[in-house]
Amino acid sequence: MIDVHCHILYRVDDASQRSTESLDMLKVAAADGVKVIAATSHIKPPMYENTKADLQHALENVQALIEANHLDIEVILGAENFLNHKSMHLLDEDGFVTYGDYGKYMLVEFAWTKNAMDKPTSYLQRIIDKGFIPVVAHPERYQWVHEDYELVRLWRKMGCLMQVNRTSVLQLDKMQKANEFATRLLEDDLVDCIATDSHAPYAPRLPKLSDVYVYISKHYGEEKAKSYLIDVPQQIISK
Ligand SMILES: [Fe+2]
């Protein structure tokens, strides 16, 4: 399995602050059968002003941990790129980071509550016009998407992929609405992949995927589980 949304790096955002915590996360993931993690730390100015070089440096620290501890897992470059009226200049300044820095798929997120100044669909279109494919992080967690369900169909029609969180699928998100919305997206076949969005080695947002693989297999068939957790993620992290 491949985790395309995980805050595995330390001291770059609101996730792990210590190498030991990132190491614990790596151990949980490796023991669970996760083979590759995309390190998708926040790029969210002014809170997290990470550059590609910052994330690359933090990635190398985590890769050194893997080697020193002989773990059977790989971590690649990525970012969770925050889109709003204040951050979109980064798109033109090469300030956002794509998966593997391959210039292909880009994980993006929005604010929980939408500012009137923000135009999410036009931001996605600008990213597509630049030649990237947006992967929308956890659409089930945005209140304004709950109120406008057709946005998800529209974004998929534009070519975006929808990444739903493991915790929402397993009904573990503290926001009940996110759990309900994830089920609705699964029932309507509007999900492209599932990832952990893990920030720590402890529950509920663990860096594990085997439990959600079993859940999807049971409720929607093994083919779907393979698609959400192996095949589409593989495509996202490919050159
Ligand atoms: Fe995240």
From TrEMBL:
- The protein depicted here goes by the name protein-tyrosine-phosphatase
Gene Ontology MF, one: protein tyrosine phosphatase activity
Write the record's keywords in alphabetical order, separated by commas.
Hydrolase, Protein phosphatase
This enzyme's EC code(s): 3.1.3.48
Do you know which SUPFAM superfamilies this protein is assigned to? PHP domain-like
Q: Which Pfam families match?
A: CpsB_CapC
Catalytic reaction annotation: O-phospho-L-tyrosyl-[protein] + H2O = L-tyrosyl-[protein] + phosphate
Tell me which domain of life the UniProt entry assigns to the organism this sequence originates from: Bacteria
Q: Which family does it belong to?
A: Belongs to the metallo-dependent hydrolases superfamily. CpsB/CapC family.
User: InterPro entries, from UniProt?
Assistant: Caps_polysacc_synth_CpsB/CapC, Pol/histidinol_Pase-like
